[in-house]
Amino acid sequence: EEVCYNSAAARRLLGAADEPVLLTPERVARILLDTGGGRKGVPAGRPFRILINKAEGYLRSREAFRLKAVLETAGVPAVVASLWQKTILTRRPPAVSVVILAAGMSRRMGTGKQMLACGDRRFLEAAVRLYQPFGPVLVVLGHEAAQIRNSLDLGDADTVVNEHYRDGMSTSLRLGVQTAMDRGAEGILLAFCDMPHLQAETVDRILWEASLHPDRMVIPVYEGKDGHPVVFPRRFFGDLLAIEGDRGARELVHRRPEDVVRLPVEDRAVTEDIDEMDTYRVVSEREGWDQR
What we know:
Elements lengths: L6 H8 L10 H9 L16 E3 L4 H17 L4 E5 L4 E3 L6 E7 L14 E2 L2 E2 H9 L5 E5 L3 H7 L6 E4 L7 H14 L4 E6 L7 H13 L4 E6 L2 E2 L3 E4 L3 H5 L8 H6 L4 E5 L12 H11 L5
């Protein structure tokens, strides 16, 4: 009842019993197209169109366009609208792959950040769990890759190993971008594993902003300071692949300011890289993490 008006009627239309039912776009379409549901009171043969409203944020808009595709396959036109934007949305959000760079040796920390505890998970586990709803996740490993793979639960994330991680961050960046590009990504969300306290709502906002500016890089900003993760459309993949040495994608952001959208957020985690043990202790105490 919290998510579906008249859930009893919806269950009947879906032929479902009392167990929980996941409202996929396909099942929502069945409800909308049934004469006992969305078509109730619509005379046979009368033109019928569906307005999918409140498609706010990346995840909601993505599901709305999935629903639109299912409805139109069934021969019913549909439009997707955003109450926030006060407009009809004409294109689906880009299919973004999440690339988590986790190949480094964590020299300043003195121990591998991938394995640091944050509550009942490790940093890399928490990062994968955070990003998985938003698209396919690719983790670039390097230092102690075998131990990380064997010790952590990375869910459905794919992993690749950068054998040249000692040659600088750019080697991991290039491997991640090339792999995502080969798999057909329309853009990448470039992330790190040392922000396990980042809010999912912040990630959704960043990707939503990127869907509104599909040809520009989007970077979150907290109290005037640039942060992570950053979205790069496919048109910048070549520039990212050209970066060399111990440099990351920030170089491209600085070099192409006219192609950057800066999104103010209220989530301090976007600028709170946990690179040193003192920072880890401060954040752990604030977040209530078990550091064992």
